[in-house]
TrEMBL record:
Its EC number is 7.1.1.2. This is NADH-ubiquinone oxidoreductase chain 4L. GO terms for molecular function: NADH dehydrogenase (ubiquinone) activity; oxidoreductase activity, acting on NAD(P)H. It catalyses: a ubiquinone + NADH + 5 H(+)(in) = a ubiquinol + NAD(+) + 4 H(+)(out). Belongs to the complex I subunit 4L family. It comes from Gavia arctica (Arctic loon).
Length: 98
């Protein structure tokens, strides 16, 4: 395994562990999701270059598009929950009360 692959795998693993264990604020969960998407974007950008496959060069652009949509939706949810509940703590959000 090359050091480049190790860094992508470790970045994805650390951000998923951060998402699993540090779930106090919605903004920290969104940051962990964005770091996961960033590591996946960089890995998908490097992969066609390593394999000399030109057919997969559109995949990073699609991933970046979905990442931007996910970030916009997450920030809209953050603003809406802060306005209704007064904070972005995840323990204040209960799906059974909606």
């Amino acid at each position: 395994m090359s050091p480049l692959h190790l860094s992508f795998y470790s970045a994805f693993t650390l951000s998923s562990l951060g998402l699993a264990f540090h779930r106090t604020h919605l903004i920290s969960a969104l940051l962990c999701l964005e770091s996961m998407m960033l590591s996946m974007y960089i890995a998908l950008s490097i992969w066609p270059i390593e394999n000399q496959a030109t057919s997969f060069t559109l995949m990073p652009v699609l991933m970046l598009t979905f990442s931007a949509c996910e970030a916009g939706t997450g920030l809209a949810m953050l603003v809406a929950s802060t306005r209704t509940h007064g904070s972005d703590h995840l323990h204040n959000l209960n799906l059974l009360q909606c």
